[in-house]
Amino acid sequence: MTGTGPVVATARPLAADLLSLTKPRIISLLLVTTAMPMYAAGSPSLMTVFIVMVGGYLMAGGANAVNMYFDRDIDTVMARTRTRPIPSGRMTPQAVMAFGMASATAATFLLGRFVNVLTAGLALGGFYAYVFVYTRWLKRSSPQNIVLGGAAGAFPPLVGWAAVTNQVDIRATLLFLIVFYWTPPHFWALALNKQVDYGRAGVPMAPNAWGTHETIDQMLWYSVLLVALTLLPACIGMLGVPYLLSALLLGGLFLRGAWRVWRQRDSGEWSAPAWKFYKYSLLYLALLFLAMAVDRHWPL
Predict the structure, then answer these.
(1) pTM more than 0.85
(2) Residue 116 has pLDDT above 60, yes or no
(3) Do 200 and 259 contact (CB within 8 A), yes or no?
(4) CA 51 to CA 56: how far, in whole Å?
């Protein structure tokens, strides 16, 4: 009994830290935008869906861990990140990097061996886009970091589509673009409320570089473009009436949230509506992609 106590005590924090490196709350949305396109593309087996989910989690989790390795200097000065494993001193940078690379390697093998090479290649492409294009290049150099670097977060629909069809066509590209255009207004709503943190860390997020007025203007325009883009799958016959009605309803609420933030840009009372918009944007994307799968398998 005495010999097992310390092992359990040390294993639990390590397991929790390894899990936190993957950012499970963020990955949960990525997995939705991976799985739902699989059902929009066809009728995958449960085993295929399971393998893609595991591979997708490992790949995205590995990218998040490597991101923490590279961002360890700024994580120490930002209130929302200083408790992460590296800045808190619970894990060494080398251990975090090793975990991230091992996760990505395992994901590449799993997807390539049991799904197809295209799926593995797309997932790995998303990994490199997030680590090198966003984290290492754009994040600290340009306020366009979220616009261009956000493409990394738009890879999951391509991965899911390729897992079923073994190809990437115009329909898969359209799903990619939906996530691509969703990312800026979603993340800028958060960045508006985290300006002090980003300013302290020297990260040129849009509100810090452009100011709140310009950022809120851009949020509204991107929201309009996004909602218009989400209607295209129904317009080209890719999806039907259930999806169209869902996109109109969800998109209307999305635009209302962006409009409420925009209305407060001059008064300075944009913080609360921006936070509400940020939280709704998470639900919006999940429900929109769920509607794609429902439409495909239960059309009217």
Answers:
(1) yes
(2) yes
(3) no
(4) 8
